[in-house]
Structure formats: structure tokens, C-alpha cells
User: Fold PLA2c domain-containing protein from Cirrhinus mrigala.
Amino acid sequence: KAVPRALRESETRDYIDAGLLNNSPYLSVLREERDIDLIISLDFSEGDPFMTVRETAETCKKLKIPFPEVHIPSQDVKRPKDFYVFKGKNAPTVIHIPLFNVVNCGGKFGLFIE
Assistant:
């Protein structure tokens, strides 16, 4: 009885991508009742590897959702390292891992980004 009738009788299901905002599911895991301590953020985009984590930090600040400040060293914007750790008081720690980085791509880094 806990399962709605429409679900019991339907042969198909429709799902919504949790990453509708910022192309990442940050906000769905940041609900207060989830009590999240650590987020591992994987970025596979060939564009700005910090866009989702930066935009999430801005959105969370506006909505008063605990999230660490995101500061990217200027020299890393075009040549990202293999991972970043963002920490904040009363906020989850975020480990951000851009796929296209100087460690993974080595001297061929420029071939993998826009």
C-alpha cells in the first residue's frame, strides 16, 4: 500500500536527472536532513572545470545552504591540478576532481580543453 497505484500498474518509469541545476546533483545531497560531511565532485567537462563547483558555491550562498567557499588560484584556471579540497566551517568538505588536468593530460593538456 505504500507504493502508489500508478507505480504498481505502470510498466515504465520516468526519472529526472538530479543535476538539473548546475549540471550536478549538489543541491539534492545538500538537504539538511542528509547531514553530508564530504562531497566528491567529479568534473568531466572539456570547458571550465570549475564552473559547477563555483556556481554551486554562489547558489548555496544565496540560499543560505552551508557550502565551503571556492577559491581557485589564478594560475590553475587554465591548467588545473588533479584535485582540490574546499573546506568551510559548518559545511561539507568538497573534493573537486577535474578529469582534464595537468596530471592526467601531462604535456598534452592543451589538446583536451577548449
